[in-house]
């Protein structure tokens, strides 16, 4: 059954859209005029170089499994929820892109860590753009003012498509011109956007229990970035047991948990409604 928003009075202010477009242009212009940010010279030299069962860098390769598990689990949850509850279309599509993107990330990142080089890293990062775009689309849909002239659904789709395009431009800028700045800004900007959504949002109750605990997403992703930066530091601190980059994969995959949780709460909500109706 297609989800319908309750009829809300709409005002004709376009402020959120204008701000979003302005922020995007500012990002592109800023990145163009700023000095080139090259990738760290020894980026492919990860701390954990162990080979086991013929698999090079086995810890960094196998630690991509949580991405695949979360992705498949999320897709299965999404399918089950759709049978029992009326989920808004933008949520269905956003979740689909997010969870399918996690599976793509597991494949791309696993391939890259098997044989780390720029071409593999491009695949890794292309895979990452998909869940990132799905997540930002979900965020925009949830956060968007319901009284805005532009519907929350259009905002969700617009932000997701925008993130896909910007991600592709950022990766082209890095791979073809050696400039990583746009990629860094895109990731940082995305996290700031998610931080803005950590407060209760208007209209979330419309989505039949749908509510992502964005603060856990941000926390897990921030931890993942810290582990990534501390790859060698953690490797030495933990006596060569596990490296920061391996932990980064696990923490980043854990950032998907609140989205799975939101789907499960929709499911519980639908069950509860069914039980009370009987
Ligand atoms: Zn990695």
Main CATH class: Mainly Alpha
Quaternary state reads single chain
Q: Give the tally of β-strands.
A: 0
Could you tell me the CATH topology label. Rhopdopsin 7-helix transmembrane proteins
The 3D shape can be described as: globular
Number of helical stretches of at least 4 residues? 11
Helix content: 55-70%
Provide the domain count: 1
Biggest beta sheet summary: none
Indicate the proportion of strand residues. Answer: under 5%
The hetero compounds bound to this protein are: zinc ion
Low-confidence stretches: 1-12
Q: Any idea what the CATH architecture is?
A: Up-down Bundle
State the distance separating the first and last CA atoms. 20 Å
Order of helices and strands: HHHHHHHHHHH
Gyration radius, rounded: 20 Å
In short:
With 278 residues, the protein is mostly helical. The chain has one domain: Rhopdopsin 7-helix transmembrane proteins.
Topology (SSEs and partners):
Elements: H1 15-33, H2 58-62, H3 65-84, H4 89-114, H5 118-143, H6 152-177, H7 181-196, H8 214-229, H9 231-237, H10 244-254, H11 257-277
Helix pairs in contact: 3-4, 3-11, 4-5, 5-6, 6-7, 8-10, 9-10
This protein binds zinc ion (ZN).
Task: Describe what this molecule looks like in 3D.
With 278 residues, the chain is an all-alpha fold. It has a single domain (54-277), classed as Up-down Bundle (Rhopdopsin 7-helix transmembrane proteins). Helix content is 69%, strand content 0%. It contains eleven helices and no strands. The protein has helices at residues 15-33, 58-62, 65-84, 89-114, 118-143, 152-177, 181-196, 214-229, 231-237, 244-254, 257-277. Helix 3 packs antiparallel against helix 4 (89-114), helix 6 (152-177) runs antiparallel to helix 7 and helix 9 packs across helix 10. The radius of gyration is 20 Å and the shape is globular. It starts with 14 loop residues before the first helix and ends with a helix. Residues 1-12 have low confidence and may be disordered.
């Amino acid at each position: 059954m297609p989800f319908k928003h309750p009829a809300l009075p709409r005002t004709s202010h376009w402020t959120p859209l204008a701000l979003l477009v302005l922020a995007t242009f500012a990002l592109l212009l800023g990145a163009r005029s700023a000095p080139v940010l090259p990738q760290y010279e020894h980026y492919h030299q990860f701390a954990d170089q162990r080979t086991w069962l013929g698999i090079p860098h086995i810890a960094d390769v196998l630690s991509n499994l949580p991405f695949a598990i979360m992705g498949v689990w999320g897709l299965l949850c999404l399918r089950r929820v759709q049978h029992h509850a009326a989920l808004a279309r933008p949520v269905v599509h956003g979740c689909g892109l997010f969870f399918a993107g996690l599976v793509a990330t597991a494949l791309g990142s696993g391939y890259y860590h098997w044989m780390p080089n720029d071409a593999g890293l491009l695949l890794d990062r292309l895979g990452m753009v998909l869940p990132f775009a799905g997540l930002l689309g979900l965020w925009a849909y949830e956060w968007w003012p319901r009284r805005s002239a532009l519907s929350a659904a259009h905002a969700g789709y617009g932000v997701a498509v925008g993130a896909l395009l910007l991600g592709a431009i950022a990766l082209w800028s890095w791979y073809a011109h050696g400039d990583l700045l746009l990629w860094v800004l895109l990731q940082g900007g995305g996290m700031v956007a998610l931080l803005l959504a950590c407060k209760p949002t208007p209209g979330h109750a419309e989505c039949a229990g749908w509510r992502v605990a964005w603060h856990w997403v941000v926390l897990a992703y921030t931890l993942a970035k810290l582990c990534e930066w501390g790859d060698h530091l953690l490797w030495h601190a933990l006596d060569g047991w596990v490296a920061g980059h391996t932990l980064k994969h696990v923490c980043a995959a854990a950032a998907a948990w609140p989205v799975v949780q939101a789907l499960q709460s929709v499911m519980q909500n639908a069950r509860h409604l069914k039980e009370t109706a009987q």
